[in-house]
Each structure stands twice: as structure tokens, then as C-alpha cells.
Amino acid sequence: VQLVESGGGSVQTGGSLRLSCKASGFTYCMGWFRQVPGKERERVAFVQTYGDITGYDDSVKGRFTISHDGATLQMQNLKPEDTAMYYCMAGSFSYYNRAYHCNPLDENWGQGTQVTVS
Question: DSSP assignment, residue 61?
């Protein structure tokens, strides 16, 4: 599956941005990770492709919303700590430890799009 991201950019604290990701093939779930230099890539949100399940990291709950349409990530009330390179991914969908998960597949990553909040 090839993934092509769009959106991102620069915004002031409290502002909004939207990220979208177009997948070329079938996916079970899609989502977003983010990474800043020197740190590990961290989960942001995911959505089950043919269902209603979504998941969010605690740091973005109540501010970010992910939807089925291109795994669109609507980001509101952005904070400087949201500044990162955001990567779209397609993953395997599963349930364990009393929660749903969308774990990325090795080859299924987008090229990344920068989000900067100042």
C-alpha cells in the first residue's frame, strides 16, 4: 500500500490544521504517528477502515479527531509540543489488553509532513 500525505504547515498556538492520507490499496486501519528529532516515533491516532473504532494518544484526546475519509486528522487547539513530523501509516487491526490497536506494517508509511506550532 502506498500512502500519500497532504496538509500540515505552520500555525500559531491554539490554531488548527488538517492532515489527510490517501492509500492506494486495501487497509484494515490507518493512523498517524509523529516524530521529533532525537526521539522515537510516537502514536497519535488511528481509525478502523471499515468500522467505527478510533484510538487516540492521551496527549491529543479532545483536541484531535480522526475520520475514515483518508484518515483525515483534524487538529485543533494546537500546542508547541505538537510540533513534529507527522507520518501516515496503514496497519493491522487487533484487540488485546482490553483495547483496540492499529499496529503499523513495516512498508506502509507515508513520506511525512511537517507540523510546526509556535
Answer: T
The per-residue pLDDT string of the chain (118 residues; one tens digit each, 9 = 90 and over) reads 899 999 999 999 999 999 999 999 899 999 999 999 999 999 999 999 998 899 999 999 999 999 988 899 999 999 999 999 999 999 999 999 999 999 998 778 999 999 999 9
DSSP 49-80: TTSS-EEE-TTTTTTEEE-SGGG-EEE-S--G
3-state secondary structure of 71: helix
Dig out the grid coordinates for 53 from the structure: 473504532
Beta strand spans in the chain (E): 3-7, 9-11, 17-23, 29-35, 42-48, 54-56, 64-66, 73-75, 84-96, 99-109, 113-117
| Nearest Cα residue to 5 out of 13, 24, 15 | 24
